[in-house]
Amino acid sequence: MDNQRDQWSSKLGFIMASAGAAIGIGAIWKFPYVAGQFGGGAFLLLFIIFTLFIGLPMLISEFIIGRSTSKEAVAAYDSLAPKSPWRITGRLGVIGCFLLLSFYSVVGGWITIYTALGLTGNLISDDANYGKVFEQIIGQPFTVLIGVFVFILMNVIVLNFGIKKGIERANNILMPLLFIFFIILVIRAVTLEGASEGLSFFFSFNFEDFSAEGVLYALGQSFFSLAVGFSCMVTYSSYLSKKESLPTSAASVSAMNIIVSMLAGMAIFPVVYAFSLEPAEGPGLLFIVLPNVFSQMAFGSIFLTLFLLLFLFATLTSSFSQFEIIISALEKEGKRSRTKIVWILGLLTFIACIPSSLSYGVLADVSIFGRSIFDATDYLVSNILLPIGCLLIAVFISFRMDQAIVKKEFQIGNQLSLKWFKLWKFLMRYIIPIIIIIVFIFSL
After folding, report:
1. DSSP sequence for 24-79
2. In terms of Cα–Cα distance, which of 187, 210, 276, 211 is closest to 41?
3. pLDDT: is 95 or 328 the higher one?
4. Does residue 208 or residue 246 have the better pLDDT?
5. Run of H or E residues at 406
6. DSSP-H helix ranges across 275-337
7. All domains of the chain, ordered by start, with CATH?
8. How far apart are CA 235 and CA 421, in angstroms?
């Protein structure tokens, strides 16, 4: 396949795919439990600020780099800065995405297992302790590895069809359905007895227990949930028509991401307080809360299964983007077999997932700087590599890339005044790099 001939069929397809890349585990799974650990409403406020003033400009930057070259991430930086150290930025994205997939696919495996349990009617019961159920599931090596294998296999099957027939077609159907079911879940959650305490926790800005580490996590979450920093969006935007507006597309993706993150919080925290759960539960929070809320609904088992299916699909749409940046880089613009690359990458990813898959079971006693293998990999990717990637991209687009090309790409397809371009450029050149460096240093 020639990557330059394969494009998104429409602006909506591109926005849905980009939103799908952003809206998945980052917004639905990770945001609630990290917010629960770092102040609830305080974390939400910082997350929104970082998303609007750092994440959104970063997203526009990746879009500009990708569409201006019509090349995947590695080739894009090679084209814009040939034979220079900046070429490492694209390669960092490939390495970072592979590391990200090594724990992201584990969560995808958990969701796959839960979906299978929901389909067989073995998830909801009257006397179930869903916290213990989750611990038992993730502590069984064979079960977890099967879940991870199936999750990666689903990625491989879709990715074989390419951009338009695979990724875009899946996103156009699944993303709207996810929004609908999320709204249903929120309505049920906020009507539970005791839900007001959860809403108060999520929307009250109490900074007393907030730390520098929490600020770093909020910054990392804004990057993680928008899929910026590893140049995934460079690759996605390389398939976009030259007629579409990049700032408005980025704004649409950012707005959808904030909305889904807020819906996730509104769905989770009312249930946490209604059932006297711990908001700082950690990675298992979502898997404990969802069965609790659906067990209180008429036809709850059916609704839970449908939601888990959609959550699984949203998780897949995010993993598509992570796989695609690696596939496109290895494919060399159609010079190598996409099918062969996809299958080999799927196998290598499964192997890389094994340590994180077992970190709550047979490798539970293995610790890296006080964290499990899973948590240590997550921390490395989200709080170290992503900020570094964003810093490199910010400096690259501000000082190394041809500013005439940057301005042209920013202004295509929209009626935005020159003031908006100057504001974006000011943020990228002077504000964002400084904030990333300051937050990074104070978190150490």
Report:
1. SIIIIIIHHHHHHHTTBHHHHHHHHHHIIIIIHHHHHHHHHHHHHHTS-HHHHHHH
2. 210
3. 95
4. 246
5. helix 403-411
6. 285-294, 300-331
7. 11-443 (1.20.1740.10)
8. 23
